[in-house]
Write a structure and sequence with these properties.
Elements (H helix, E strand, L loop, with lengths): L2 E3 L7 E3 H14 L8 H14 L4 H8 L4 H8 L5
Antiparallel strand pairs: 1-2
Helix pairs in contact: 2-3, 3-4
GO molecular function: DNA binding
InterPro entries: DNA_brk_join_enz, Integrase-like_cat_sf, Integrase_catalytic
Organism: Streptococcus pneumoniae
């Protein structure tokens, strides 16, 4: 089973199946929650960092982007 590292430099590695299993349990407990893609959590994390004033380079490293261009192209609309 392939392991995923949710965020760069995080000590937590999980399998895709274990993440999805836990997420389904949460959704089953509260059917008022909207189902979103796991990848959307990653995007939300980046958006929160930007809203808190983090620099592009910090966001790039946290997301593990190989190039700063990827980070800028994806998130520049969130910077003032």
């Amino acid at each position: 089973t392939e392991e995923l590292q949710i965020f760069q430099n995080s000590p937590i590695s999980l399998t895709k199946n274990s993440i999805e299993k836990q997420y389904k349990k949460i959704l089953a407990r509260d059917n008022s929650l909207k189902k979103i893609r796991i990848h959307d959590f990653r995007h939300s994390h980046a958006s929160l960092l930007i809203n808190q004033g983090e620099d592009y380079l910090v966001v790039k490293e946290r997301l593990g982007h190989a190039s700063i261009t990827t980070t800028i192209d994806t998130y520049s609309h969130l910077y003032p």
